[in-house]
Amino acid sequence: MVITPDVPVLNYIKKGNVKYFELVAQPIRREILPGIYINAWGYNGSTPGPTIFVYPDDEVCIRVYNQLPQPTSVHWHGLDIPNNMDGVPAVEPSPKINPGCYFDYRFKITNPPGTHMYHSHFYTIVQDMMGLEGAFIILNPDEKKEDIQRDFFIMLGSHTLKNIDPFSLKKGVYDINPFSMDANFFTMNGRCFPYTSRLLIENEDNVRIRFGNIGIANHPIHFHGHQFLISASDGNTIKKENRLLKNTILIESGSTWDIEFYANNPGIWPLHCHFPHHVSNNKTLPFGGMATAVVYKGFDSKKYQEYAKCFYKKNIGF
User: Which residues form the Plastocyanin-like domain (predicted)?
Assistant: First the structure.
């Protein structure tokens, strides 16, 4: 089972051989730190949108309702599907979805198991940066529990919030400037550290972490205390004999990467972007932004919780 911390799973109804999903593109309000909210756009009340799980050879129908103030579309990033279902109205015969309307994307899953994404491909400079994105994961029906015990997905994100004073974390509701290239908040699954959920594992687990990135920035993700193997790129499995052993991996815009490691060093270990500005919340101290912690069972994160409480009290007034 793949866990997407802080993000829901998209349910479906099966009729005959077809799995029917529903996505609603809509304005939403997302809490990225306690008391700090953003007016974003998302799917089904969330940004990132709910994670979609399918299997190879599934027949799917994904109905997308548009509750936005402008037309939209959905691109199924990395999937090999018919041209008119690919969701790029400016180029393809795939239609735009006007406000108040819906469109049914129907296709068969022909890709092998792997990590993919979905996102808007209409007025992308606005809609992607406002938060219209999510994970699309093709599960492996043959994978055994003894192969991977913990499996996570993390969507990397960044936002420029309007009218918030530099070097401050004043509670409030803020609009996003989608045209800015100078982000001041960096997220994992729509939250900033230390508000991100920890990744809970056990000693001697085989762990997979899947990363996705739709935004404008690249992110070198570094993991403390462990080496990992790069097991997949853009949803394509890398043969075991060709996998690189690393502790930092660059997650470029538009890419997904899977890493795997053997959990043999118990503790509470940071997992974070290595760009210094990206591990800050609006240029404030201390550590924040695009980060989380991998926590072994038995290390019940008391220190983590104490740090978070201290952080909130000092910086946000909780």
Answer: 39-141, 175-282
pLDDT by residue (tens digit) across 27-61? 999 999 999 999 999 999 999 999 999 999 999 99
Question: Which single residue is written with the structure tokens 């290239």?
Answer: 181
The answer, yes or no, to whether residue 160 has pLDDT greater than 50, is: yes
Contacts of 144-148 with CB under 8 Å at 24 or more apart are: 147/206, 148/206, 148/207, 148/208, 148/260
Residues 6+ apart with CB under 8 A from 188: 5, 154, 155, 156, 157, 196, 290, 291, 292
Q: Where are the domains of the chain?
A: 2-28+42-138, 150-159+184-315
247 contact partners, CB below 8 Å, separation of at least 6:
222, 223, 224, 226, 227, 228
Quick: pLDDT tens for 171-183: 999 999 999 999 9
pLDDT number for residue 318: 41
Mean pLDDT of the chain: 94
CATH number of 2-28+42-138: 2.60.40.420
